[in-house]
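Here is my example:
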Amino acid sequence: MTSTNADFLGALPLVAELEAIVAGHGSLEDPSVYVTPERASAQLDRLRTAYRLSDTLVLGHIHKPLAYGDRRGALLVGRSGSVKLHEGERHLLNPGSVGQSRESRVVARFLVLDLEDRWAHFREVAYDHRACNRALRRRGLPRRTYHRNPKGLRARAGRLRGRLRRAVGH
């Protein structure tokens, strides 16, 4: 990345407002914060006070789909599906991850937001993660940017636990 590109990106706001929608990466205050269902209510309280005309908050960072309403609580967690966005209720929506999936199935997740009929459609599509990883490697990106297979990570963790047990004699 050139310094001009880095400067441009660094000057962008951390939160964007688009009519009744506010969008950010992590939380409204910090792009590195993971907003889980347990933290969603606090984010919607913050939306109410800082962005009074907005009723929909779209965030990312946790890599898992999430829909949460300030009246109804968790509406969708970790899966595809559709959620009706009720009038008078504030909603936090996280589409999940297009890459770097945190699940065993290799899918790219996305959200189709229908503001006219007030629906959030959480969708997923399979993709060729091996071809994607090869393309990232060719472009010189570090391995941590590639799709990680949680099954593979769990298997490696299990092997390490076994080695540790043998090493300490248990």
Notes: The radius of gyration is 19 Å. The first strand starts at residue 15 and ends at 18. The helical segments are 3-11, 37-50, 129-138, 150-168. The beta strands are 15-18, 21-24, 56-58, 66-69, 73-77, 81-84, 91-94, 107-114, 119-126.
